[in-house]
Amino acid sequence: MIPRNIQSMNKFIFLSLILVLTYGCSSQDGNEGNVTVGTTEQQVVPVVEDLPEYSVSELPEGLVWLTNEDDPVFADPNAKPGGTYNEYMPSFPLTLRAVGPDSNSGIRGYILSNQLSLTDIHPNTRKFMPALATHWAYGDDNKTVYFKINQDAKWSDGKQVTADDFMYTLDFMRSEYIVAPYYNNYYNSEIVDVKKYDDFTISVTGGTAKPKDDLLLYYSISPTPRHFHKLDENWVMDYNWLISPNTGPYQITDVVKGKYVEFTRNRNWWGNDLKYYQNRFNVDKVRISVIRDPETAYRHFLRGELDTSILTFPNYWHDKTNDKTYQNGYIHKIWFYNDLPQPAAGIYLNLDNEIFLDINVRYGLAHSINIQTMIDTVLRGDYERLHAMHTGYGEYTNTEIRAREFDLDKADEYFSAAGWGERGPDGIRIKDGNRLVVVLAYSTQLHTDRLVVLREEAKKAGVDLQLNLLDSATYYKNVIEKKHQAAWMSWSISLRPSFWQHFHSDNAHKPQTNNITNMDDPEIDALIEQYDNSDDVNARTELARTLDMKIHESGVYIPSYYVPYVRHGYWRWVKLPEAYGTRLSDTLFDPMYLSLFWIDEEEKQRTLKAMKNNESFEPVTIIDDKYKVAF
Description:
By secondary structure, the protein is α+β, with helices and mostly antiparallel strands.
């Protein structure tokens, strides 16, 4: 897998941010009933007859082994184990595979969270800490990291994690049988070698030299269970509904097609006693039910059928909490500021669409999109205007970039330069008998009201901005196959800007890549390659700022807004640690990654009894701004 350090920052930000793209996929056959899953022991797994054997290399002398046991713990020692945490996804996945066709589902983030990498990131200090590795050392080439694997680490089926499982990751991710071009490329160009020195010592060599901290960020890979996978032309179908062994605390134990997926906590998990894992992953079960409409899901929450709800949307925080369940103290509210890189949210233009070949049209459109009015009206001023592709990345952020503001005069200037100066009877610009139409695809009804503002404001500039609401599966397929004209979406975040996947020509003009603008610019390619190949922090930050300016100048991306906080409603039986969250908490109720909360069963029974007897508690609203920063 891609290193969990990157995965953790790339988890889909499920409803907690306003441009979320939930990669859920609807059940295509419509059948409801148990998928034959049960437990991992009950699976009929293809027999792996010949496990690959790997040669042993000689470990270099003079390595300086490092670890981190000095940072403060961030979990609460008062946390209680037990209970079931209930949340939802908008559609049922098409597969339980984490790679290959249809794997970008709403369940994928949960699966990846249980595939630990060699190291992890402390969510307050941002320093690296042990995960599957106990120690690490850096090679002199600035491309290689050496790791000592924790000999206590086990797969969920009880087998020991060894160096061979990391060696196998290279074979697996390079295989054509997994039908995953992105991973094929990543594990050829980014991860170029994995070596074994003994059963519990390996090295990972990347394709480019990087600063030391970035080596751990990008090259701290996850293992793949070589005893489980039989790679052949049938792999995609044979493993579609099989549950892979993992190294994390939870495993899928129950799947009812079209209804829910359930994970169960392994109370004998090998990592229970590790310093940074204690008092985390507290609930016994996590059930993710399919509820296709967010409004319906919120009603389930008010009935206590879901334990928490995102309240980031202004109408939820300001209006939908005027309910007796909040007023009587049964549900608490929290507004928690974090200190995170911000998702790159906004409108992405497809350069393979003929109308956008002229940069004047792209600039004209940017000046026709009234983001600020949307923020001030529909979003009640709660959100902040986003200016650059990479915001909140420290020195990597180009603070000189300012988004193009709504300006009818500038819009007219650019459109006229592109030959769209004439207007029809309805006020929409025309050229050669064609109206200036831009179709904007989006994936959730919750965004319709804000996009209607953009549509109506764009008419003033002579643009017919047509809104195309698609279900999440169709939307994702449309965008990833580059069939969109314009896409309203947000890319999830990492600790470092990532340019190659989004803007390098290697990923343009082909489906199943993240270059959804089809950017194909030799100058930008060269800068990206310099950025990826630099091991000098100062050079990398300067290149990142230059690249963001080039993206801004290209006009392919119209930034929208960012949200430097999370807002939740949660039933009073759901308990948070004293600090509520961490600097890097993009949600306070992630059951699989940071997972600091717990369920108090006694409090739950007390609350249900009070509700039955029409008794109330003191209402609770928490606003915590200790990590608040200004960009």
